Amino acid sequence: MSEASPKERIGRFLTGQPIDRIPCVPLILNHAARVLGVKVSEYAANGPTMGAAHVAAYRRYGQDLITIFTDTSIIAEAMGTKLYFPPDDVSRFSEPAVKDPPDADRLPAVDARASGRFGVFLEAIRHCVKEVGDEVFVSCCVPAPFSTAAALRGTSVFARDLYKNRPLAKALLQKATEVTCAFCEAVAEAGGIPVPVDPVASGSVISRKAFEEFALPGLVAVHETIRSLGMPVVLHICGKTSSIVDLMASSGAAVLSLDLISLAEAKEKVGSKVCIMGNVAPTEVMLNGTPESIRAAAAACLRDCAQNPGGFILASGCEIPIETPPANIMALLDSVKEYKLS
To answer: Which CATH class is domain 24-334?
Structure first.
């Protein structure tokens, strides 16, 4: 089979047609700023710059999906949470929007197309679609309701609210879900594919029971919105997911982007229901490894999951660290070119 463009490859993959090779999606997010040669703070604040950075990264690496992102607090920020922006690194949580429970009733109305930095992301999507949209799909990471609610309150305080103030937790989750769904619609209007990301809902942070009661309902609602837009749902939860991977698969996602879980285990638990995406370690391997160790890690992922009944996409387990050597990213991409489909 002749070599396909990334858009052709992903399109065939999602519709069950034969493909020329396994798709590969290193999660190139803030690293795109390094490719363009701008500071992360500039990248995070300017839509055309963010878009240009991702176009530059795609032209350098040729990955199978552009993934626009800077931090998981963009929705909470639009709703009043304050962030600190270092000159050349990702934002940091500074002050919650809901310091005291009554603050939840005073959260501002949010325009998913104009409030906060939403416009930055939408401009970036439009820029990428205009420049390379005929070659590659453009996605945008959208913070899921649970992670947004945690950012509205502060993660540790919100975790306590799950047990000590359940009505407040559920009220914040409902507000976050509404804005998340609206932002997904805005992303789609701009030409992008919304990708829910929910790091605080990880098994590294909360229990399976808490995930099922508090995080899953919001994901289901968001996924229903994305499917109604005629798009596949890719769900990313970093951290440990062994205890919740079956619940993730029940959320309506078509693709699970996984981090700290054995791909063999994921394949056994949910592989007939969903496509699995992952999961070369971002720091230990992608940042600190060598091209040789990256090829070895990729080979292990391919061995464990390339024949997954629901499909497989080779990827990093989470965001490629900003300072990852370009040669390491190319080694991951080269590994799928060397793998022979049976």
So the answer is: alpha beta
